[in-house]
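Internal tracking record. Fields below are filled automatically when a chain is submitted to the structure queue. Please do not edit lines marked as system-generated. If the sequence contains nonstandard residues, flag them in the REMARKS field before resubmitting.
Queue: standard
Priority: normal
Entity type: single polypeptide chain
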Amino acid sequence: MEGIHAVQIMVGLYLVIFLVSTWCQEIGDEVTAVYIVTMKQAPAAHYIGVLSGSKDTSEQGGSGSANILEKPRYHVFNFSRTDRRYASYIARVHDSLLKKVFRGERYLKLYSYHYLINGFAVLVTPQQAEKLSRRRVVANVVLDYSIRTATTHTPQFLGLPQGAWSRGGGYETAGEGIVIGFIDTGIDPTHPSFSDVASENPYPVPEHFSGICEVTRDFPSGSCNRKLVGARHFAASAITRGIFNASQDYASPFDGEGHGTHTASTAAGNHGIPVVVAGHQFGYASGMAPRSHIAVYKALYKSFGGLAADVVAAIDQAAQDGVDIISLSITPNRRPPGIATFFNPIDMALLSAVKAGIFVVQAAGNTGPSPKSISSFSPWIFTVGAAAHDRVYSNSINLGNITISGVGLAPGTDNGSIYTLVSALHALNDTTAENDMYVGECQDPSSLNQDIVQGNLLMCSYSIRFVLGLSTIKQALQTAKNLSAAGIVFYMDPFVIDFQLNPVPMELPGIIIPSPDSSKILLQYYNSSLERDRLTNKIVKFGAVACISGGLKANYSYSAPKIMYYSARGPDPEDSFLDDADILKPNLVAPGNYIWAAWSSGGTDSVEFLGEDFAMMSGTSMAAPHIAGLAALIKKKFPTFTPSAIGSALSTTASLYDKDGGPIMAQRAYANPDLNQSPATPFDMGSGFVNATAALDPGLIFDLSYDNYVSFLCGINGSAAVVLNYTGQSCGVPATNAIDLNLPSITIAKLNQSSIVQRTVTNIANNETYSVGWSAPYGASIKVMPTHFFVANGERQVLTVFVNATMNSSVASYGKIGLFGNQGHIAIIPVSIIGKILYNATSN
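SYSTEM-GENERATED OUTPUT FOLLOWS
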């Protein structure tokens, strides 16, 4: 494989399994683990495109014959991104170090990282890891950690057809020439969303992209094309640790889960692909940038999720291949152990990606709605939360004078026809089956009497087993079909409390009643309508009747956008290095709830969509690729934009209001979320809800460079050595506090009486005169200077913001600053103050 020396093809994978099993037998009870080792020497991305003199800072001394580590060496590099010389050199350095440190001891190197970080992943004992950490050439040794995965109407809701697409030449050219790299569960290359034959116009692979397409039994030759331009998989760490399940996980780029196919099509799927699920059509799908190219770097799997060593390898390769954007719908299971918030291998690799000009977008995580639940925190990463759009599929069952709402992508009963309700518990072939507590779930048609069920609405229990995946809607539907039922009705078991159901596709008329209270109403009506023999107590007549309205037709009257309860919230979490960081997270919110997108033919992540070509999914995983696709539109229009400039364009133009003109609301509780909501704050939604059209004409941008981020890291107490280790740069330059980063937001964790903040804007539009307005957070005052300014195209303007506490407070409060141009451009800067301490001169 070009660039990364990895154990990846099938023969190599099985060889690793054999070696590891043999090794483990020989070393007895000694525990081994995978560690990610970072070297002090700079990675290739620091040298690309320049003639550099690089001093090998490897340690000197030691016994034995001289080797590449024994004394300082100088190397001059002048190469392209695809040049293999530096990769080979770095791999030799890694191998030489391992041989010298372990001197005959057993170890297994899995990856050599060279492009974004200089390091490697190795399987060793804790004692061996300690030996490595003591070498002067080694920057950090980190235990590998786990990673997890966190549309038809969305383009219309975001105004793309009449707005962003039309301004760029239509969907036919939207995102053309831009490559989006996806670190995810892979892709189904056979899906029409990724075909290149539908386009009438030439569709060349961008010249700047150099990735390859792996060929395996599951991903045969021809899987890639001019749309899907690259595909690789990374699983060496998982295989080495023995958690790769060959019976469930594809050792190829093929998507065995569905998640990766869904996210890729959301960002860049082809335009106008019919969405047909369970025999019903739900419109036509399109990605945000349907002309963009897709490169897949599979590092997550069905049976175990993912591991950081594999994810870093995927990110490193994506950057070397030349992707323009990296989309990460993944987050750590927890903060990496023993590492400060920002200093972990994944975030530091992504920092180098930003240096290489790659815009990085990541899902915020699905751990909301509690504060400090954010799972993506570094300022160089664009973090996206999830909001609802205005489309809902409403379904209901009518019981005469009672109507109960529910969910289900299902047809209604014919022309409102009324049918008899029959509970599965009252249609048993064998009365002894009544003792089976699960028989009411309708999973086994042989246990039910077809003569009783036929032509009626079958009532089934939705128990905790459905939540756990032990029972399925799909199997219950098959039971209903086998018994010739007219439809199916699921009532919620009282033990399933506050479970949020996604709409589920059904071929038959059907409905799921998600509320236990509403289910009680249905059961009371049903039981009270039964006629029984007075002597035997046997049912002689089923008296309850109902009709189902059907949930195939979408309703667009829902108040939206709205921040979903599961979307992770800011501010940044505390760690041992610093208190709350002065950084606004999430950066933005985008549609993430009930998103239709492509589904893998082998996707098993949702059993209800098994075998379907499309699936409706929810999560911040679905929100992030919306932004990745929209970033491609911005990158196409402004090819010289830095990653921070792209993020600024998205942030300053975001909307603070829902479609009805009211404030965007945020759900505050998992239980009854629509009954527990209040206006969203910046820690719920960042700068607001993405405005795709306005982002293509932001007027002003806030820009940041790689060096600015390094200065910020240097400003964290005690971080100088860590910064040097990861970046190769010393902290001799003036350090920058987070509050002074030129972000399109202002966040102050602890305001001690007063603070002065500066921001610099650059005009990328025509000459324009701006006026400045603001609203101060509660308990503070704000003044911005100047209050008016003229800025020519390409020129900059420094804004000075004076913030003063007016009262003591320990709770967060929020305000905003608005820059209003006379040519129509508006930039909004959210202001968040987490805590305020007003100095009291009379106190002791």
